[in-house]
Amino acid sequence: MRILSPEPGETDLAERYAYPADGTWLRANMVASLDGAAQRDERSGGLGNEADRHLFLLLRGLADAVLVGAGTVRAEGYGPVRPSEGWDGVREGRTPVPPLAIASRTLDLDFDAPVFTEAQVPTIVLTTATADPVRLKTARERADVIVAGHDSLDFPAAVRELAARGHRRLLCEGGPALLAQIVAAGLLDELCLTLSPLLLAGHPAGILNGPPLPVPPEMALAHALQDDDFLFLRYTRSR
Ligand SMILES: NC(=O)c1ccc[n+]([C@@H]2O[C@H](COP(=O)([O-])OP(=O)(O)OC[C@H]3O[C@@H](n4cnc5c(N)ncnc54)[C@H](OP(=O)(O)O)[C@@H]3O)[C@@H](O)[C@H]2O)c1
Fold first, then answer.
1. 72 Cβ inside 6 Å of ligand 1
2. Are 194 and 203 a contacting pair, CB within 8 Å?
3. Distance 31 CA to ligand 1 centre (A)
4. CB of 125 closer than 6 angstroms to any ligand 1 atom
5. Rounded distance, CA 220 to CA 162, Å?
C-alpha cells in the first residue's frame, strides 16, 4: 500500500494504525463499494481485496477486543480470532489474540460452534437483562457474558465493562446495525473505511443502518492509503 495523504510514499501500517497510548478508543473497520454498499451477496468479503484482508487482520492484532454484531457473526460464519502473519511484536504483553465481543439480544447463537469452543481467549457475549434465561445460562457456560442494558444494549456501559476487563483498544467490525448504534451513542472515535472500486446498486445497507442521526458527527481525515484501485481512509472524530 502507498500513502497518498499526508505525504506520498511507503508506510509502516502497524505504526500508522497505532492506537493512542492511553484511554479507551473505539475504532471501526468497514468496507464499502463506490456507491456506498456495505454488502455484496449478503456478505462483505466480496468487496475487499488482499490488501483489505491484510489490514483487517492487522487491525485485529492491534486491538484488545473485537466488537461485532450477531448478525455479522451469523452472515459471515465468524470463527474465533487466530494469530496472524504480520502481528510480530504488536501483541507484546497481551493475550495471543483479542477476544471477540459479540452483541446479541436474542442469544440466537450456536454456542457449540468453534467461535466459542475453539477460542484461544474466551469469546465475550454482550447482552441485555431481558435475554432468554435458558440461552443466557448456556452463554455463561461457553463465554464471558456482559449484561448491559435492559431491552437494548447500553453501549456506553458495555464499553466501560470491556475497559474494566483491560480492553481499552476496541475494534468494531460492524455490521451496519451495530455500528449505527455505536455512532448514535457517541462512542465512535475512528472509522477505517476501505473504498472498493465497485458499483453495485440494489438496496444493500450502507456502513451504518439506523435512523438518521440528529447531530451527524464530523470526522477528520487522518490518512489516505492506496492499493491498486482501492482506497484505505482513516477518519478520526473531530474534537
Ligand atoms: N461492509 C462491511 O465492512 C461489513 C462489516 C460487517 C458486516 N457486514 C455485513 O452486514 C451484514 C450484517 O449486518 P447487520 O447490520 O445485519 O447485523 P449486525 O450489526 O452485525 O448485528 C445485528 C445484531 O446485533 C445484535 N444487536 C444489535 N443492536 C443491539 C442492541 N441494541 N441490543 C442488543 N443486541 C443488539 C442483535 O443480535 P440478535 O439478533 O442476536 O439479538 C442484532 O440482530 C452482513 O451482510 C455482513 O456481511 C458488512
1. yes
2. no
3. 15
4. no
5. 26
Q: How confident is the model at residue 37 (pLDDT cuts 50, 70, 90)?
A: very high
Ligand 1 lined by 52 (C-beta under 6 Å): no
Q: Is the CB of 76 inside a 6 Å radius of any atom of ligand 1?
A: yes
pLDDT of 57 over the 70 cut: yes
All 3 cell numbers of residue 64?
484488545
Which pLDDT score is estimated for 239? 65
Band of residue 225 on the pLDDT scale cut at 50, 70, 90: very high
Q: Ligand 1: which atom is nearest the Cα of residue 194?
A: 3
Q: Are strands 2-5 and 9-10 parallel, antiparallel or unpaired?
A: antiparallel
Distance 70 CA to ligand 1 centre (A): 5
* Through-space distance between the first and last CA atoms of the chain, rounded to whole angstroms: 28
Rounded to the nearest 5°, which phi and psi values hold at 237?
Answer: -60, 135
Mind listing the domains of the chain with CATH numbers? 24-237 (3.40.430.10)
180-208 burial code (b ≥16 CB/10 A, e <16): bbbbbeebbbbbbbbbbeeebeeebbbbb
Supply the residue whose CA is at minimum distance from atom 24 of ligand 1. 69
**Ligand 1 centroid vs 75 CA: distance in angstroms?**
9
Q: What is the pLDDT of residue 10?
A: 86
Mean per-residue pLDDT, 39-57 = 89
